[in-house]
């Protein structure tokens, strides 16, 4: 053994394949991303604990999925109760949590029908299929979906086509066709993208992966009017923005428009794989067999979703989210001033700090390495930090996170930087 202090897991004695370092925790995992060596073993609320026992204040929360933080009692309880009753009768039969969650989501939103799925990409694919089905029946075969540059809708082949991430359209050729692109917050570009084949516009009201860029309210109102006038569906991808993340149950409420279709995932499952595609009654146009999935509507995840929604979509809970969001935004503005950064922006508890140069990865590493407690941040771009804490983060935890962030900004800037550890 080398000098590494990590206690070996019990089955680490298996010899590693030649050429792979024996102390790489990911030696048997397919390489898909670069992870730090830290191995997390426990989580509670806004805190994660690694194998060394070090605590980390988590402002990533699994990319905004843990709406109620790590291992909240409402979810572990819902899981335990449902797991002992019924795991999965199969998608061809009704189960009680599936029915209850669909009705709850319909009650809370402007939509009437709900399709349950397991991931955001799957829900978005469902939305595209629905739009194409509707287009084939009501719009003479119109099928093209207009998305936005820098948009993000998931990682299946079709959702890579729907997304506007630079480089994605040529990563796994041939890519599915039928996806046009317009410029975010530019209504003229949407008008120009419309063709006789167009059937829908698909948009994130706050572009998340692009760096937390909110749509302009005027643009969204014009987009709703334009799509209505041209007979196109408006699909909002609220995978990241929905379920309280932006301080309202759903971000479309902030804009005062009613979309035709909405997708949810991330926060809906509170950390577990659950997604939904919701639509108006007149779009309930799949024939039996047109759409489905083995795990769609399984009672275990539906019971979790119901517990999450019942907690998050309460008036007092959402008021708390807005209060924490305001606290976080004000604290970030002060950091922008004190550390000569560019800006802070966002909606609710989905926020970003714009840095003057490409130092985001260094800040993320410096924050993680702080002692005695670390801070977990996300850098969707070289010059951008994204913060998406649990919606249950406390006032004191935000204060602590801001103290840690100031130290990390100082560390990433070098010892003589503008950072002022407090
Ligand atoms: C994360 C995300 C997706 C993809 O969700 P998965 O569950 O990873 O498939 C889609 N759209 C938006 C806006 C997202 O943030």
Compact overview of the structure:
This protein is of the alpha/beta class and 422 residues long. It has helices spanning 61-64, 73-85, 96-108, 120-138, 157-162, 187-193, 217-230, 252-255, 299-312, 315-338, 360-369, 395-412; strands at residues 40-44, 47-50, 55-58, 113-117, 144-148, 179-182, 198-203, 206-207, 213-214, 233-237, 261-264, 275-279, 343-347, 350-354, 373-376, 378-381, 384-387. A 7-stranded mixed β-sheet has the order 4-12-11-10-7-5-6, sandwiched between helices. A 4-stranded mixed β-sheet has the order 1-2-3-15. A 4-stranded antiparallel β-sheet has the order 13-14-17-16, covered by helices on one side.
How are the SSEs placed, and which strands pair?
Blueprint: E1 40-44, E2 47-50, E3 55-58, H1 61-64, H2 73-85, H3 96-108, E4 113-117, H4 120-138, E5 144-148, H5 157-162, E6 179-182, H6 187-193, E7 198-203, E8 206-207, E9 213-214, H7 217-230, E10 233-237, H8 252-255, E11 261-264, E12 275-279, H9 299-312, H10 315-338, E13 343-347, E14 350-354, H11 360-369, E15 373-376, E16 378-381, E17 384-387, H12 395-412
Parallel strand pairs: 3-15, 5-6, 5-7, 7-10, 10-11
Antiparallel strand pairs: 1-2, 2-3, 4-12, 8-9, 11-12, 13-14, 14-17, 16-17
The structure holds pyridoxal-5'-phosphate (PLP).
